[in-house]
Amino acid sequence: MQTIKAYLTLSATPFRESENEVIIPCFFGDCGDKSKGNEGYLHLNTATGQFSCEKCDVSGSLINLAKNLLVECLEIYDASCRDDGNEIIADCLFDSCYRNKNGRGRLSFNVEKGQYECAKCGAKGNLITFMKFLETL
After folding, report:
1. Pseudo-torsion of CA 54, 21, 8, 4, nearest 10°?
2. Mean pLDDT across 14-29
3. Which of 112, 113, 111 is nearest to 71 (CA)?
4. Segment holding 110, helix H or strand E
């Protein structure tokens, strides 16, 4: 739950906690437009690893939700990426790889473990650190 809360804090997403859940405004459809402040309809259940919205009925696993959000973030920065099942593979955005004349490295994101790594430039860390890095671009 700490990783989820850290990401939400970093992204300035309002949230509230309730036992094993973190509740945020839903970003599917127009549910989030109807939320005010910490009010939210999207329930992220850390005990079951599932999410669901009480308004629009969208639901699924937190891992798939994290993968989709990560791919969207990477595409904003023109990093081509693909989902290889257990991990997301994307163009490396770190300066030592990005400017390399012999081609960029590939970042491997293990969403379940919350880790990333580039074999070419050696960049590695957790997804929260990577999200902070994206803010510097």
Report:
1. -130
2. 85
3. 111
4. strand 106-110
Q: How many domains does the chain have?
A: 2
Greatest CA separation for the chain: 51
Element (H, E) at 21: strand 21-24
User: Residue 8 belongs to what H/E stretch?
Assistant: helix 2-10
Same domain, 109 and 132: yes
Pairing mode of beta strands 81-83, 59-61: unpaired
pTM beyond cutoff 0.85: no
Average pLDDT over residues 117-131: 87
Whether residue 42 sits in one domain with residue 71: no
Cβ distance 114 to 126 under 8 Å? yes
The DSSP line for 35-104 is: --TT---EEEETTTTEEEETTT--EEEHHHHHHHHHHHHHHHTT--EEE-SS-EEEE--SHHHHT-TT--
